[in-house]
Amino acid sequence: MNKYEKYRCLTDEQKAIRISIMDCIIDNGGSVNIELAKKWVKEHMESSEETIDATFKQFIDTNVMVVIDDEITFIFPVSGKPTNHRITLEDGRSFCAMCAIDSIGTSYTFKQPVTINSMCAATGKEIELKVDNGKVLYTNNPGMYIIHVDLLKNTDWANAC
């Protein structure tokens, strides 16, 4: 199963649980304990405890969600740890994305415009992008290029980004 199939095969309920876990990380300002995240999901959704537990297990087993020492540290594209890729959603919430390419995709994930504040890995220059629905609305550096590394060869791509 490649990384894209992990998300295509999720049920609508599992997709909503995934977004709820991301919301928990964002609203708590970083990595969260698994039990706190489960409690959060239970409070914000009408899913059964069995469904939530099974979904968390599936997310961990398939590397959709990375857990280190009982803390959810990554759930694509949200990083519970600081990175150079800071996202601000139109609703005012902000978080770090796992990588620059993931930053651009956050507009799709959260279905709203985003502002990305990042840093060029090669030059150290600050980068600002405003993205909505796959379109760059603004950049402070119109001559920039984006280089993408194909991660399909990795099974644990969340840790390889």
From TrEMBL:
<dbReference type="Pfam" id="PF03243">
    <property type="entry name" value="MerB"/>
</dbReference>
<dbReference type="InterPro" id="IPR053717">
    <property type="entry name" value="MerB_lyase_sf"/>
</dbReference>
<dbReference type="InterPro" id="IPR004927">
    <property type="entry name" value="MerB"/>
</dbReference>
<protein>
    <recommendedName>
        <fullName>Alkylmercury lyase</fullName>
    </recommendedName>
</protein>
<dbReference type="GO" id="GO:0018836">
    <property type="term" value="F:alkylmercury lyase activity"/>
</dbReference>
